[in-house]
């Protein structure tokens, strides 16, 4: 770096920042509450509530059928767990979902229905759960149960020696799954807190006013030659208080006129 180049450094007085934050704590709290209230109103009034219904299925990877007595090995269980990913792909295939749309009678196309469906294994076991999210809780239940009815035949026609069985059918959801009003409100409060604190910090960083002699000596390392008295204003007794002595208002006006 050349000597002619000058690098400007901005020093931040953490103590001064903390003082300003504490001084404006009421304003920061008010902004946080207002942002939380706005987030609450948005979640409660503007966000469309959605409901979820789930069907629980069991992956069977055994080649034994009927009443034959047998034991399932750990390797078969591991294979069944891996098959869950394959079953999810079959579930979200166009052929399967178009069959689901036809049987359930819903007014969705393939792309729309795909976005409403999620499937995952349960705790890394051979069980997997199909969840349908909809604005209508009854519709979510119907689609989930239709999937549970359609999927076994689809899987049997694709994966040889594997099948699934229904463990639990979907039921109508009693409570909405989204939006989470509490989460929205807390995020609003947090954003308001962070934003207001950030504004205060910026105010402190870009405030170049000289507040007192201590600020001058500490910031610029220069001696103070004189201090201008602070005019506090006229008191209740009609006097102006300035630099430790009092002056009647009438006397002040006479002196100003003379000069």
Question: Could you explain the architecture of this structure?
Answer:
- This protein has 259 residues and is of the alpha+beta class.
- Helix content is 51%, strand content 16%.
- The protein has nine helices and seven strands, in the order ααβαααββαβααβββα.
- The strands form two sheets. It has a four-stranded antiparallel β-sheet with strand order 2-3-1-4. Strands 5-6-7 form a three-stranded antiparallel β-sheet.
- The longest helix has 25 residues, at 181-205.
- The protein is elongated, with a radius of gyration of 36 Å.
- The chain starts with 13 loop residues before the first helix and ends with a helix.
- Residues 1-9, 63-72 and 242-249 have low confidence and may be disordered.
Features:
259 residues, three-stranded antiparallel beta sheet, 51% helix, 7 strands, elongated, disordered N terminus, alpha+beta, four-stranded antiparallel beta sheet
Helix-strand layout with pairing:
Blueprint: H1 14-23, H2 25-46, E1 51-60, H3 74-91, H4 94-104, H5 110-116, E2 117-121, E3 127-134, H6 137-158, E4 163-168, H7 181-205, H8 213-220, E5 231-234, E6 239-242, E7 245-248, H9 249-258
Helix pairs in contact: 1-7, 2-7, 4-6
């Amino acid at each position: 770096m050349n000597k002619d180049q000058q690098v400007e450094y901005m020093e931040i007085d953490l103590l001064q920042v903390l003082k300003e934050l504490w001084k404006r704590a009421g304003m920061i709290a008010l902004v946080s509450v207002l942002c939380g209230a706005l987030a609450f109103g948005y979640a409660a009034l503007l966000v469309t509530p959605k409901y979820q219904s789930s069907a629980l299925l069991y992956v069977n990877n055994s080649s034994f059928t009927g009443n034959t007595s047998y034991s399932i090995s750990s390797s078969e269980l591991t294979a069944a767990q891996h098959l869950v990913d394959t079953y999810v792909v079959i579930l979200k295939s166009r052929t399967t979902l178009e069959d689901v749309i036809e049987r359930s009678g819903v007014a969705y196309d393939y792309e729309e229905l795909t976005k409403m469906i999620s499937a995952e294994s349960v705790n890394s076991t051979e069980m997997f759960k199909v969840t349908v999210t909809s604005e209508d809780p009854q519709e979510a239940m119907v689609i989930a149960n239709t999937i549970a009815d359609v999927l076994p035949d689809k899987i049997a026609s694709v994966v040889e020696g594997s099948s699934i069985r229904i463990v639990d059918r979907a039921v109508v959801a009693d409570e909405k799954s989204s939006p989470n009003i509490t989460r929205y409100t807390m995020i609003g409060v947090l954003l308001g807190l962070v934003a207001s604190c950030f504004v205060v910090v910026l105010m402190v960083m870009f405030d170049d006013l000289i507040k007192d002699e201590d600020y001058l000596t500490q910031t610029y390392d220069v001696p103070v030659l004189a201090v201008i008295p602070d005019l506090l204003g006229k008191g209740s007794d009609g006097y102006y208080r300035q630099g430790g002595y009092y002056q009647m208002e009438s006397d002040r006006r006479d002196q100003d006129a003379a000069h």
